[in-house]
Amino acid sequence: MPGPLHGYRVVDLTSMVSGPSATMLLADQGADVIKVENPQGGDHTRAAANRRSGFSASFLNNNRNKRSIVLDLKAPSGVAVLKRLVAGADVFVQNFRSGVIDRMGFGEAAVRAIAPDIIYVSISGFGDQGPFAAKPVYDPLVQSLSGLATVQAGSDQERPRLVRTILPDKLTGIVAAQAITAALLARERTGQGQHVRLSMLDAVVAFLWGSDMGSQTFVGDELPQQEAASFIDLIYQTADGYISAAVQTDREWTALTRALDRPEWLDDPRFRTPALRQKHINERLAMTQEVLLTRPAAEWLERLTAEGVPCAPVLTRSRMIEHPQVVANGIVVESEHHRAGRLRQARRRARARHKRPAPMPSFPACSCGSPTRAATARRSCSCTPTPAPAPPGSIRWMPLRAPDTASSPSTAGAWVGALPSRTPGRSPARLRAILMRSRAI
What is the largest CA-CA distance in the chain? Predict the structure, then answer.
């Protein structure tokens, strides 16, 4: 069955990770996402390392299930095509720096003049106001400004540390996708479109507040210095590897003492209550580590599990994809890409059931932007070197040529059927893309 967002169309002007990951979530849930790229190489992630057959893993992992069209928005012809795309869209998403989209002629007022009830989405790095509004942004800068780097350090007095993944980018994508679906629901109820604004800084600060900003919560009683409870991670070395184990409640603490065969810890006055165990956390963790070094990881995991202690193995990325828990839940799936070959990706994060589970839409975007799925009136892909004659009112979806591709964008791509407007009352978007050449990337 179609995904829950089937029938909604998204015009996506975003690049890099935060915006594309948001629109990929919408595409995974059935939305028709049209990615608009520039003719100077398109989304920067197309040029990233770790490539096969001209496609980077970063681009494929943030842009599956989308179609792509190359438009020169500095040319009147490109502007005209984008306006026609907007006329048939439900959502318009952009992540340019503050002021850029207005100079391009596609600020909210201009877009809403074409589609009054559209959901207009602006994703920024630092927000649309303030001294950093126009600054270029990358993930480490947001980790730094938001306080995340000092949280990761463990104390305000320690050297700040970055989280070793682009958390602000990916978190912003999740928040944006949720906000877009909420705005679509509001439009169904009210008939009015909203302007959804969010920044990477917004997303991370709110993310931190639930667990890491307690010392700044009570106005007038702020703690001047955020001190670390402990610098010891809940990662324990065993005789042959690493595991993680965590206890919070009295019951879990008692279970841990049984699993480690240390009943005397229950009589230790330092550990009699959760508050005391937190106060003496360094001593508690050091004692636990000393015991765990005496046996192999598998044996400890078996003992801890038998006693009801929360625990898990510490896995490398290569071991994770083969772990029985990951395999049993089908979290990692494989699909065939027409040029990049066999791909392995995480499935969509949330799934909905109606009688029968919907299949995972695991069809990465192809070179012409169309998903590699069975041809339909609105989603098809041929990617043949010689295009078929163009039906009147159709779009030509242009690939950005990879370095090892012989055919140029002017002779490759697929003609896709005309896109009718979804929203009643709008004129049908009978669109013809202007043929443009894109550089090799």
Answer: 83
Q: Which residues pair with 396 in a beta bridge?
A: 415
pLDDT in tens, the chain (441 residues): 789 999 999 999 999 999 999 999 999 999 999 999 999 999 999 999 999 999 999 999 999 999 999 999 999 999 999 999 999 999 999 999 989 999 999 999 999 999 999 999 999 999 999 999 999 999 999 999 999 999 999 888 889 999 999 999 999 999 999 999 999 999 999 999 999 999 999 999 999 999 999 888 999 998 876 766 677 889 999 999 999 999 999 999 999 999 999 999 999 999 999 999 999 999 999 999 999 999 999 999 999 999 999 999 999 999 999 999 999 999 999 999 989 999 999 988 787 776 554 454 444 444 444 333 222 223 333 333 333 333 333 344 444 333 333 223 332 333 233 333 444 334 333 344 333 332 222
Query: 214 exposed, middle or buried (CB, 10 Å; 0-12, 13-18, 19+)?
Result: exposed
**Beta carbons within 8 Å of 114's beta carbon, 6+ residues apart:** 83, 86, 87
Q: What is the CATH number of domain 235-319?
A: 3.30.1540.10
Our answer to whether residue 221 is catalytic in this structure is no
**How far apart are alpha carbons 300 and 42 in whole angstroms?**
51
Fold of 9-207+366-416: Rossmann fold (3.40.50)
Q: Residue 142 and residue 168: Cα distance in Å, rounded?
A: 7
| CA gap 154, 152 in Å, rounded | 5
Q: Which of 28, 32, 43, 169 is catalytic?
A: 169
Q: Has this prediction a pTM greater than 0.85?
A: no
